[in-house]
Design goal:
Shape: flat
Number of strands: 11
CATH architecture of the domain at 518-737: 3-Layer(aba) Sandwich
CATH superfamily of the domain at 518-737: Vaccinia Virus protein VP39
Length: 741
Amino acid sequence: MSSSATAPAVPVLSRPPALFVVTVFTSAFLVFFVQPMVGKLLLPMLGGAPAVWNTSMAFFQAALLAGYGYAHLLQKLKGFKTQVLVHGIMLALAGLTLPLHVSGVLGAPNPEQPILWLLGVLTLSIGAPFAVLSATAPLVQAWFARTAALDPTTGKAPEPYNLYAASNLGSLLSLLAYPILVEPLTLLTHQRLGWSLGYGVLAAMIILLGLTQKARTAAAEHDAATPRPDLLTMAKWVALAAIPSSLMIGVTTYLSTDVATAPFLWVIPLALYLVTFILAFSSRQIISRKYLLLAQALGLGVCLYLLPLQTSSILLHLFVHLLCFFLTAWVCHTALAQARPAPGHLTLYYLCLSLGGVIGGGFNAFVAPVLFDTIFEYILILAVACAARPWGDGWVRRDVIWLTTGIVAALAMAGLGFVTVSEELGSALAKTFFAIAIVSIIALHHRGLLMALIAVLVSMALQVFNHPGNLIETDRNFFGVIRVSDVEDPTLGPIREMIHGTTLHGAQRRLAGTQCQALTYYGPKAAIGQTFTLQQARSPSLELATVGLGVGTVATYVRPGDRLTFYEIDPEVMRLARNPERFTFISHCAQGPVDFRTGDARLTLAPLPQGELDLLLVDAFTSDAVPAHLLTAEAIAMYLSKLSDDGVVVFHLSNRHLELRSPVIAAVLQAGGVSLTQVSPAAAKDSRIRTASIVVVAGKSDRALAPFLADPRWEGRSPGKVKAWTDDYMNVIGAMFRPQY
């Protein structure tokens, strides 16, 4: 990262033959295509916990590292034809596990140790094909360098790094094609077979390469004469790869937790990440490094300035943070491209890049949640990324002045968090110190290490100073960030809220005598409240179950003869809802027994005897990371089997971005049930007393829905042309574009 190390000149790259380009493109397309597909295959077996996706991604990063390690070891074999033969044999051996399927060797998942089961199944099902397949990109680039003629003007071996741009283009198109085209238009069964066929086509391309190309002796001798990079250089490669990898996960988590959530929001940072690779390794740079560094410094300054301003436009936050991430990743990847070695050490270079990706992603997935109770790692790494810029040589008086000014301003801003001043004065001083620190960061944009030092101090000062006075508790675990806050409602007076990410999970009044009033979606006049009232009129004693705990509001409906069981996947949500110092719906309002089950509902409901429940509320879809496996025809058939003859299952389908009612109605029909629907309007603007909701109630027969049929607020509705979601088919993109009402 220091400018004292002279980066190699970037020559004009030789244009690779079409077969090399197509082979690299195809391998990258298959590598990115298989990851969401395997996640969907495992979803119904292990449930929709974020741990399924996060663990799967960690596995794929590790498998990619193993593939790159294999590619590097294969380069120890001197003969080009020998390498092609060995790789062809490895592809054939790994292909014995195809067609792609979930291995049953380990049996059913163990709920006590699901991660070990998941890693084992992934290894047996896709580990070998994925690792060998991921090795293809660096191998083909190395083979191009060995088989192409020396440049007649320079006498050097050609650089194959244009092929890396083709590889990232394949990854990008696969990333976009799966959710937009493949998932809504094809069955999972066909996707598995298509991927297996693509694997065979790629193997044929590898064989064709071996038959049509031959090694050039001069190129091989030139590669052998190139000195091996030292440990410091390799550490630089790892660091430059780790920073954007960490930032990609960090900005996604930050935006979905603190700014806004939307389906496929994770696609945007990942797509931008791949685009920066394409731009950095392209033979033609679209912007000079001087202006790129200046743009990134300005972007970082605006990004830092917006951090405390959570009330400003959501679209502005999304744009600024994504732009800052894009420019920062571009800076890092450009530095990485400029530090690339001679082609003889290409596989070592890619091995270091892969190791950096694993370290960066692992820090966010496993280390940061333990160290921080907010998404602090995002802004911290964004600040550290400034060190990827040129450091400069010597000391310039102007730089010393700006460094001192920035440090003093950052420390002064942090100090305001420990002194007592009026709110107006404190705010004015904080804004002044903050502005001075940001100007110092931009002024030092040519001195990466100094810029990083001030940026880190500013990020830490924000962490100390920017804490709302109404915040009661913040907790972070594998499932996200939960905040408990006290707010003033214009209708209800003081209330306490639980917010998970950006989604309100429940609220409770704090005035004496009002704590047991059901609020938000659960009020007695809202659709969910009506279902409890209508079912309780049938019998003095009911077996009730709720998927999704929130703050435990529905416990207010539990009579002395009833029994309620909550099914909740997040242990932190359960701890807060059961703590009477936080919320008292469960401890003070329920008149009958309340039980709890921890885990994914599809797993924890399965052992329940058939005909057990009189009412099952499935309420896990208000946030935008929708556990879609809980809405499939297979899941709904299981719910119906757990109901008594007069029992009903209630789906709360209110969602800011997805129209879920139509696929649920279609799935109920496919499962052999009947359904009614109701849209409840909100009570008043900005009030928590009753929130607008979309609810579907389903039963085994018209007899089960008789009380609802007599109520004009409930109506029958056709799914129209919308198909039922199944474990083999989902269309989330379609749900994004259908009108909610």
